[in-house]
Amino acid sequence: MDWGTNLWDQNDVIDKHTQAGLDLLERYIKFVKERTEIEQNYAKQLRNMTKKYSKRGSKEELECKFSNHASFQEILNELGDYAGQRELIAENMTANISDKLTKYLQDLKQERKTHLSDMKKAQQNLESSFKHLESIKKRFAKEWAEADKATQQADKLENDNNNSKIDVDKAKNHALARMRTAEECRNSYAAELQKYNKEQNSFYYTEIPLIFNKLQDMDERRIRQLAEGYCQFSHIEKNVLPIISKCLEGIAAAGTKIDEKKDSKLLIEQYKSGFERPADVEFEDYSQGVKPSNSESALNPLKGRKHKIFKKHKITQAEKHMVLFMFSMI
């Protein structure tokens, strides 16, 4: 079914419908742009967060071998890759939907404007022809009335015996002249009417259907492009899902790599001093003449060793607290 045949008298409906279609296309473009901004901001925030929580410090800290520390760094790396995929979604939506449909929208606006202009011009031509027909018709009506009046006047003079033959002949000639003029106007009106009817048939059966069918074709192309844009909205994200899934799998894998027993063993291997635990403190019986000990290390043998331990290894704050806790338990 086509608009030209079934909607030949619905010019206003077609005008409003095609405009509403362009408005919807423009709304969808704005919608995609807003979604793109959300993706860009999301990716930016993810990158800032990964940067914030990534390790910063000495070489020893950056090269920490504890599995729970290393896994967290792997999670941050995967999250950075994940942010890259969100950026890719934004870029593809801009290129394949927003930019493409924006250009297409401008082309459709110009095409619609051209079709509506052609329709308006055709209407104006038909209206102009109708006005010309009306003017010829009025002239014919006027001339026929004058000819009829002149004929009646001539007949009246002829039937009146008081009028001379010259006056009667003059009236008849005048009536005949008016009748010829009226007949010319009648022929002109008939020819113009035939011409107008031909133009009107062309307008309603050829020009308007052609223009309306072009508008229908334009609108259907718009709908197809919009439908493709709807599908692209989904496909663009689905295309990066395999990589996003790998990022998420990488995060899960980082969690499974953690080995708490291995981390405990590693701490022991790194910071075990090798010293024996201090022996029991002997009783010093001053009543038997034993002199008091002046060496503080004799009462606290570990105090002198702590300096060596911490000087030998430069450790992180968290590891330092762990070692101090171990010493406090001794």
Automatic annotation (TrEMBL):
Residues 1-263 form the F-BAR domain. Keywords: Coiled coil, Lipid-binding. InterPro entries: AH/BAR_dom_sf, F_BAR_dom, FCH_dom. SMART domains: FCH (SM00055). Residues 105-199 form a coiled coil. The keyword Coiled coil applies. This is Cdc42-interacting protein 4. It comes from Ameca splendens. The lineage of its organism: Eukaryota, Metazoa, Chordata, Craniata, Vertebrata. The gene is TRIP10.
